[in-house]
Specification:
Order of helices and strands: HHHH
Radius of gyration: 13 Å
Strand content: under 5%
Number of strands: 0
Length: about 110
């Protein structure tokens, strides 16, 4: 159950960052195609983080955020060709920052 929770969290962070960057913040142009492309990025990122967690214990929120950003960058680059130069890097940074922000929020909540 813990791995599934980790997967869904990383999927949603990468998916959200990818969606926002693809439409350049203009939510009025979101389409099903955007959601499908973002789902590929989220799927690759979630799987990469879960696989990494089997080989290395990752309990540092900064390391998890860094890995989320790294895997999101790679996943976004592989998932679709970009019209914006450096889009995958921007997406990775966004996912990493989102992961770090959520870790602080969840830490405070608990």
């Amino acid at each position: 159950m813990e791995k599934f929770k980790l997967f869904t969290r990383k999927f949603s962070e990468a998916w959200t960052a990818c969606m926002l960057v693809m439409v350049q913040g203009d939510l009025s142009v979101l389409s099903m195609n955007h959601a499908i492309v973002a789902s590929k990025t989220g799927l690759f990122t979630g799987l990469a983080i879960v696989l990494t967690s089997y080989f290395k214990k990752i309990d540092n929120k900064y390391m998890i955020a860094w890995l989320t950003g790294l895997f999101t960058t790679l996943s976004d680059y592989l998932a679709h060709p970009s019209m914006i130069k450096g889009e995958s890097i921007i997406t990775g940074i966004g996912a990493g920052l989102l992961a770090l922000t959520l870790s602080f929020i969840l830490e405070k909540k608990n």
